[in-house]
Design a protein that fits this description.
mainly alpha
């Protein structure tokens, strides 16, 4: 599928998802994942991050897309909106690592874009959604996606395998999506 075809497919699926079509939303996430994974792997390698962190970045990006999907302007292309979220998650990963590796000067301008101001409304929405999860899921989502820790750190903290952490995060995201669809935000 070409970039233009992907753009059209993602926009159609996101519009349907915003209108309440959960099947379209699932198809959107399945369609986005390979592209996001490729971008995350490439950018991790380019910026000197461990390529194994790419999957964490993909999961964080998908969660952010879910939480922010109502912010997409349907009159604008969706790919730049999605890639901005992915880029921000990459920046977050780099910051968590203390930016110990040198950054090529050509990349500095891409990473230096200012972040949007937090007016507190997003935090309230997140807190309401997370309130519908069980304590363990809520703690895991906060630890990984909000506090910015890695899957490896979560595995150590919760005494789980990294695979079990990923499965638990996936289930938590699925539960968040169901809560969101039911309007419990």
């Amino acid at each position: 599928m070409g970039a233009r075809d992907a753009e059209e497919e993602w926009a159609v699926l996101m519009r349907a998802a915003i209108a309440g079509d959960s099947g379209a939303y699932q198809r959107l996430l399945l369609s986005l994942t390979p592209t996001l994974r490729g971008v995350a792997r490439r950018d991790c390698a380019r910026l000197g991050l461990d390529v194994a962190e790419a999957e964490d970045i993909v999961q964080e990006t998908l969660l952010a897309i879910h939480l922010k999907r109502d912010t997409w302007d349907m009159d604008r292309p969706i790919s730049p909106w999605i890639m901005t979220i992915a880029r921000n998650k990459l920046i977050d990963a780099r910051r968590r690592r203390g930016a110990k590796s040198p950054l090529p000067i050509d990349d500095a301008f891409d990473l230096a874009a200012p972040e949007a101001a937090d007016d507190g409304v997003d935090r309230q929405d997140v807190d309401r959604l997370l309130g519908g999860l069980g304590e363990r899921q809520r703690d895991l989502v906060r630890f990984l996606s909000i506090d910015g820790h890695s899957v490896r750190e979560a595995a150590e903290r919760y005494r789980m395998s990294e695979g079990a952490v990923r499965v638990a995060l996936h289930r938590a995201i699925k539960a968040l999506a169901a809560l969101y669809r039911r309007g419990e935000k």
